[in-house]
Amino acid sequence: MYIKKTISDAAKIAVIGGGAAGMMAAAKAAELGAAVTLFERNDRMGKKLRITGKGRCNVTNNCSFDEFFANIPRNPRFLYAAYSNFSAADTISFFEDAGVPLKTERGNRVFPVSDKAADIVSALLKKCRENKCEIKNERVRHIIAENGIIQGIETSSRKYDFDTVILCTGGRSYPLTGSDGDGYRMARDLGHKITEIVPSLVPIVEDGHLCSAMQGLSLKNVKLSIINNISGKVIFNDFGELMFTHFGLTGPLVLSASAHMRDIEKGKYTAEIDLKSALDEKTLDARIISDFAKYNNKDFINSLDSLLPQKMIETVVSLSGIDARKKVNSITKAERKALVELLKHFRIPLLKFRPIDEAIITSGGVDVKEINPKTMESKLISGLYFAGEIIDVDAYTGGFNLQIAFSTAALAAENAAKSI
Ligand SMILES: Cc1cc2nc3c(=O)[nH]c(=O)nc-3n(C[C@H](O)[C@H](O)[C@H](O)COP(=O)(O)OP(=O)(O)OC[C@H]3O[C@@H](n4cnc5c(N)ncnc54)[C@H](O)[C@@H]3O)c2cc1C
Fold first, then answer.
1. Distance between Cα 48 and ligand 1 center (Å)
2. Which atom of ligand 1 is nearest to 402's Cα?
3. pLDDT over threshold 70, residue 186
4. C-alpha 414 to ligand 1 mean position (Å)
5. Whether pLDDT at 8 is above 80
6. CA of 260 to the centre of ligand 1 (A)
7. What secondary structure does DSSP assign to 344-398, as a single string?
8. Under the phi-then-psi rule, with left for phi > 0, alpha for psi from -120 to 50, and beta for the rest, what region is 136?
9. What number does the ligand 1 atom closest to the CA of 58 have?
């Protein structure tokens, strides 16, 4: 029978996964004196981190405590202790101390001044190396536990003894970065419940062909609302940028909206775009009257050039109910009113999400009921800790997901390092 091993001088910790959470956990635990080995399956560390924020890495969000939690739709309370222990301010100090100056942009989004995500990876690696953390490029296949106590791990090549494991293998989105859900299997093998895995911050497939007709068109400063057709309620409402594609909708606004629609199915949600959000209905009507006066003798289809992007005109005309060849000077007040209504409430029925491979994050993961929120330790296996996206917590866009990775990693590392 196994008994918990005791090591007199330092905790012997395996960190599995060299992503945002894993590198932070390894650096922090090693800084506290633990003997840390970081296992990463890829040859390169932080593959996903390198592509975050379109290669610029939105590393955190410099907002208030309340705002931070308002941006976490899933299990926010679970993160109170972790965020109180290591907040956005701590993330900023950590990277600035490591020699990466940061800047805050619109919406409190924090980026490296260099606009290079690679600088964030280098800083984390530098902290790991400074603190004498050993790095092994091996894929971990199993975590070994006996009688509810961690004994070690098994990689593709051999077994290693460890007192403590911090599991930071990420979610299941963008699997080519190495995060393909391996950690869920390892946690499940140890008895942990994995809640339903669904994509979040993901492009959305339309129910029909409206978007495909306008593919490639990007709209800035539009208002997007998502309507739940069953309750009639607006469940999301924001301004920003979106794009029409061959399958439906994408762009920052759409990705954010997707985080509110975990239960998407055919017929349930409609996207409503206000194409002229800067104009109220009366002002828009006046604008159309003035355009019609300018194009007095033209066909309706040739009168919208200054009102709409070229790629939208045909679709808008066909949805308006007005004959494309009708002369503008004979368009009735009722027809104009319907056009205003269409431009202010351009509706697209939604069908489903794109596959999880295309999602920015994975929603779902290790059930938070089985993790101690004050330490990040498993309630089932002594010496097993979790950090990052593998846990069933997720946030909207804006740097919140990386902050979750850093906060949970710091708390797990501190507790793992003192656990022996
Ligand atoms: C395109 C894109 C852009 C994003 N931009 C932002 C952004 O700007 N700001 C933000 O806050 N969030 C952003 N995110 C989300 C953010 O990247 C993740 O939430 C974050 O990386 C999660 O960190 P993690 O350490 O938990 O997992 P990951 O960063 O996914 O790291 C997990 C690591 O574990 C390794 N691994 C997996 N299985 C094994 C195994 N069996 N053995 C050894 N190693 C293993 C993987 O190779 C990987 O390196 C973005 C995500 C994507 C896909």
1. 5
2. 11
3. yes
4. 21
5. no
6. 21
7. HSEEEEEEEEPPGGG-SEEE--B-GGGB-TTT-BBSSSBTEEE-GGGBS-B--SS
8. beta
9. 8
pLDDT over 70 (residue 1) = no
Please identify, by atom number, the ligand 1 atom nearest to the C-alpha of residue 401: 11
The residue to which tokens 């907002």 are assigned: 63
Kindly report, residue by residue over 151-174, the tens digit of the pLDDT.
Answer: 999 999 999 999 999 999 999 999
Alpha-carbon Rg of the chain, whole angstroms? Answer: 26
What is the model's pTM? 0.92
Domain boundary assignment for the chain: 12-197+364-417, 203-353
Angle, helices 400-417 vs 20-31, to 10°: value is 30
**Separation of 60 CA from ligand 1 center, angstroms?**
14
- Encoded amino acid at 380, one letter: L
Q: How far is the centre of ligand 1, averaged over its atoms, from the C-alpha of 356 (Å)?
A: 14
Q: Choose which residue among 41, 48, 49 to substitute to test ligand 1 binding: the one with the highest number of ligand atoms within 8 A of its C-beta.
A: 48
The tokens for 243 are: 């794009």
What share of the chain has pLDDT > 70, as a percent?
97
Region 12-197+364-417: CATH code? 3.50.50.60
Q: Give the per-residue pLDDT at 296.
A: 85
Q: Give the closest residue (by CA) to ligand 1 atom 51.
A: 360
Mutation pick for ligand 1 pocket among 28, 402, 406 (CB with most ligand atoms within 8 Å)? 402
